[in-house]
Amino acid sequence: MNQNSTRQAHSISSLSIRRSAFAAAMLFVVLIHPTLREQTMAQEAITPLETVKRLMIEVERMDFDAATSYLAESFEYIPGPVQPVALGAQGFREALEPFFAPIEENEIRILRESANGGTVFLERLDRHRIPQGWFELPVTGVYEVEDGKITFMRDYYDLATIQNAMQALMEK
Fold this sequence. Notes:
Layout: H1 3-44, H2 48-61, H3 64-68, E1 71-78, E2 86-87, H4 88-100, E3 105-116, E4 119-130, E5 133-146, E6 149-156, H5 159-170
């Protein structure tokens, strides 16, 4: 075999290897990659309802760093009947942290849920344990979600319910 024949054989061999590698890569893309891509997209593109539920999980854990990751920069929070409007992630923290400071454990039960587009409603039973025991607060939350981030949240609850629950615990 002369030198030119050897080069041609080597080139053909290299070309065959490259074609085989390309074919294997295309097979991966066609057979496997779309599934991985769909799973990744499904994980990344969560529904507004799931976004709100994830926020509630982090609030229950009192992990406010993780909770604020679900909030838009323009987030507005109306935390109940007497507290002022809280703006942004920092405002959310400032509204919740004093309330949660004496709490040792939380349990947020979602009783009913409804979503229409980016608007989500949750009827919740928020249970909180302080050293004197557990107290419960029925809450209805309204949320607006845009582009995967919560832009608005309002909690509705009866102020007398929490006052009476706290008073009963303190009398124990």
